[in-house]
Amino acid sequence: MDYQEYGREHTTFMMFIHGGGVGGWMWDKQIQHFSNVHCVVPELIGDDMHFSIEECARKLLKIIEEKAQGKHVTVVGFSLGAQIIVKMLSLNAQLINNAIINSALVIPSPITKKLIGPFITLSFPLIKNKSFAKLQAKALYINQEYFQQYYQDSLKIKIETLTNILQENMSFAIPDNFSQVSCQILVTVGEREKGIMKKSARLLVNRNPNCKGVVLSNIGHGVSFANPTFFNHFVEYWMKEGRLPEGKIIH
Predict the structure, then answer these.
(1) Contacts of 34 (CB under 8 A, 6+ apart)
(2) Mean pLDDT of the residues in the chain
């Protein structure tokens, strides 16, 4: 798996795991902010059309094992990347001290999964359409600075890869042993996200006593894009002080 690495000399380690439809570039503002931290930013989607959440989780744990070398480890993930973190914790939480799970879907939808293939076949040409890409980018709070990168990623993705990613995304459920994970976990979801996303956040919080959860006010799917300054500060304060971000606490 390809990844970018920054600040190897620092004593704190962070891994930022991007969502579907975007790449490691989504964390540019975070890398700039955490310049005094050893950061690793993986690229989940390679040339291989096959995608597996579990396979990604295992590869990322191996990178942490090789690179962190006893450092304090925080992992941050968005959407698909957040699902991968949930899987990583269930496989080997001992490597991770703090986990920040942003907008993770953990309620499987078998019917939707079955419809993904036909839906993608019909809609795939739209994904290559620049006007449609602009609408999608707006929904994710991707501004003009990053739109071209987002659009280029859209042009490169293969229909088989996209289908595979969406099937993995729609069938993901909380692993049974997630309740036994002992590291500190912060779960966030946007106030303007779909009900199923808020329900997913509540399920995660209620499944593990070490989970704290917050609904972020006036935010949809993509807090790190929508307000990177707010996101960077709450990540930093939670890592250092255990302070929760502003929002409605999830019970």
Answers:
(1) 14, 232, 236
(2) 94
Instruction: Please name the amino acid found at residue 174.
Output: I
Q: Phi first, then psi: what are they for 20, rounded to 5°?
A: -75, 145
SS3 at position 50: coil
106 and 203 Cβ atoms separated by less than 8 Å? yes
Query: Which residue in 149, 153, 147, 120 sits closest to 131, CA to CA?
Result: 147
List strand residue ranges (DSSP E) for the chain, in order.
3-6, 12-17, 38-42, 72-78, 98-102, 184-190, 211-216, 248-250
Phi/psi zone of residue 104: left (φ > 0), alpha (ψ -120 to 50 degrees), beta? beta
The yes-or-no verdict on residue 9 having pLDDT over 90 is yes
The yes-or-no verdict on residue 209 having pLDDT over 70 is yes
Which residue matches tokens 């839906």? 119
d(CA 245, CA 237): 8
Strand partners, 16: 76
What type of residue sits at position 192?
R
Q: Which residues pair with 215 in a beta bridge?
A: 189, 248
Tokens of 95: 């490597």
| Mode of pairing for the β-strands spanning 72-78 and 12-17 | parallel
Signed CA dihedral, 1, 36, 68, 76: sign only: negative
In sequence order, which residues have a C-beta less than 8 Å from that of residue 229 and are 6 or more positions away? none
